[in-house]
Amino acid sequence: MPLTTKSYSQLNNISTQILNFLNKTSISPSQISQIQAQIIHNNLHFNTTIAHNFISVSKSLGLFNSAYNLYTKLIKKPHIFICNTLIQECSHSEIPVLKQNSISMYVHMHKESIFPNNYTYPFVLKSLSDLKELKLGKSVHTHVVKWGYVCDIYVQNSLLNLYASCGEIEFCQQVFDEMPERDVVSWTILIMGYRDCGKFGDALVVFEKMKDSGVAPNRVTMVNALSACANCGALDMGMLIHDEIRRSGWAMDVILGTSLIDMYGKCGKIEHGFWVFQEMKHRNVYTWNAVIRGLALAKSGEEAVRWFFIMERENVKPDEVTLVAVLCACAHTGMVEQGREIFSWLMNEKYGFPPGVKHYACMVDLIARSGHLEEALSMITDMPMEPTKSVWGGLLAGSRLHGNQELSEFAAWKLIGLAPRNSAYYVVLANLYGAMGRWNDAEKIRALMKERGLSKDLGSSSVELEDQKDLLELLRSPNLQVLSIQRCPHVTDETIAKIASGCPLLRELDISFCYQISHKSIALIGQHCPNLQILRRNLMTQVNPSQQEPFVPREYVDTCPQDGDSEAAAIGKFMAQLVQLEIQFSKLTNKGLALISEGCINLEHLDLFGCTNVTSRDIANASSNLKQLKTLKKPTQLCLESQTERYGHWQLYDDRFQTDFFRI
Questions:
Q1: What is the pLDDT of residues 174-228, one digit of tens each?
Q2: DSSP-derived secondary structure letter, 297
Q3: Rounded distance between C-alpha atoms, residue 260 and residue 470, angstroms
Q4: Is the CATH number of domain 468-639 3.80.10.10?
Q5: What is this structure's pTM?
Q6: Hey, CA dihedral for 324, 330, 336, 340, is it positive or negative?
Q7: Backbone phi, then psi, for 355, in 5-degree steps?
C-alpha cells in the first residue's frame, strides 16, 4: 500500500514494532531479513532511528552488507545521520574489508552531494588510520579544510592520529602546531607518534611541554611517556612520572602498573618494578612478562626462572612472549640444561603453542654461547621455518666467542644475505677476515661496502649520569661526534667548557633543558667545535603557575642564567657553520633573532616554536637573510595568523581526490 494512504498512527505503530524487535536480546538472521522487508514495504528506510538500530544489529549478526546495500542502493541520498552510522560501524570493525566500506561510503556521499558534518570525519579518518591509507588521508584532509572543520578538535585529533599511525610525524607535528586549541588527546597522540617512530627523546620533550602548558596528562599519556622512558633509558624521567602518578592518587591498574614495571626493568632497576608489582591488586600475563623480562635484562636468570614457575603456580598461562623472556634469561646466564628443559616443554606443546622463530633464536644463542656450536647449527637446519637475522646472529656471537672462525664466516655471510643494507655485518666479516690474516678478503668486503654505498655507522651510547664527574669521565673521547645531554639541570658552564675543549669533532649537540648553561658555554662550543652543524637548545623557563611541582625542579628554573639575546649573539658570532638550529626559547627577542640570521647564513632548518616574544615581522626580516632556509617552524601563536598560509600546503593533495578516491 503506498505511503500516502497510511495514517501517521499506523506508521508509528509499525515503527514501534520494528524497534521493539531490533532491541530484543535474541534475534535471528531470518528475522533481520523480515524486518528489512517491512522497512522497504512501508517506506521506513528514511527513519533515522530505525536505520541506526537496524545497521547496528545487522553488523552484530554479520549481515552488515545487507544493511549497507539497503541504504546505498535503495536510497540514493540517505540522511547524513544514516551515512555517519554506516561509516561509524565500518570504522569500528576489525575486518579490513568493512573498514574499506567506510571509505566507499564517504565516496558515495561525495558523488551524491551529501554534505558531511563534523561527525563524519573522525570515523572516516579512523578507518584511513587503521588501513594506513596516507594518500587518501591527505585528500580527506583537504576536504576538512574546505568544509571548515579545521577548528573542530575531534576532527583535528583524528588527523593527528592518521599521520601518527602512518609514521608521518612531520605532518603530525605540523597539524598539531596549527591547532587553535589542544586537549590531552592531542598531546597524547603526538607523544605516541614520536614514540612509535623511535624518537623517544622527542616524545619526552613533548611530554614536558604538555606539562608546562598546563594540560594534565591522563593514564594513556603516562603509559606512552613511560614507554618512551623505557626505550631510551630515561630512568629519572620515569621516576618523576611515577611520583606524578602517586600524587594524582590513581589506582595502580594493570596497564599502568605493567608500564611502570617494564620501564624499571629496561632501565636496570627491576627492584623498583617489584614494589609496583606488589602494589597491584590485579595482574595479567603482560605484567608477569614485564617482571620476567626485567630479570632477564638484569642477567638474573635464576630469579627469572623462579618467577616463571611462580607464575605457573598462580595459574597464569604463559604466552609466546613469556617463553621468549625466560629462554633469553637462560641464555644470558648460561643455564643450558634449564633452557633445554623449558624448550622441550614448548616442543611438546605444554603451553598450547609450538615454538616460534624467536624461541629458536634464544635456544641457538644459548647453545652456541655454551660452546655446542655443531648442535646449534643442527638446530638451525632442522627448524620448521626459515632462520631470521636473530637466529644467525646468535650463532655468529657464539662462534666468535669460542673462536670458530669458519662458522663465524658462514653465519656472517648468511646475515649479509638477509640484510644486505646493514653495514654492521660487513664490518664484522671484514674484521673477522683481518683476524684470520685474510687481508685480501677483508679488502674485498670493504670494496663491496663502497660499491653498495654503505658506510660504517657511528657508535652511540645512552646513559644516565649522577653528577658532572661521571659526565666528564665518559666524554674523554676526542672522536665524539654526536652528544645529547638534555634534561641535565646540574650541568654548568664549567662542564660545557671541558666538553667543548675535549670533543673538537662534535657535529651534533643537544643541550635542551640544561638550565645552568649561559651564553658563555655557547661561545666556547662555537670556538672549539668548528664542525658543529646541528644545535638544539630547548628550554621551558615559564613554569605554569597551576603546576605545583614541575618536572624540572623550580630552583633551576627560577635561577637560570640564560639571556636569550646573549645566547643568540654567541650563536650568530661563533656558529656560522650551523645548518640546523632548534632554539625553542621564550627569552629570545627580535634582536637575538636578527643576530642569528646575520651570522648563521647557511641555516637550512630553523625551529622557533617556543620563541613566544618574536613577531611575524621579525621572522620575515630574519628569513630574508637566510637564503638557504628550507624549513621554518614558527612560534605557536604565529601558526594561526594567516588562514591562507596555514592551509595552503594541504591544497596540493586535493587534485588527487578524483583519481585516487574513485578507484575504490
A1: 999 989 899 999 999 999 999 999 999 899 999 999 988 889 999 999 999 999 9
A2: H
A3: 27
A4: yes
A5: 0.76
A6: negative
A7: -65, 140
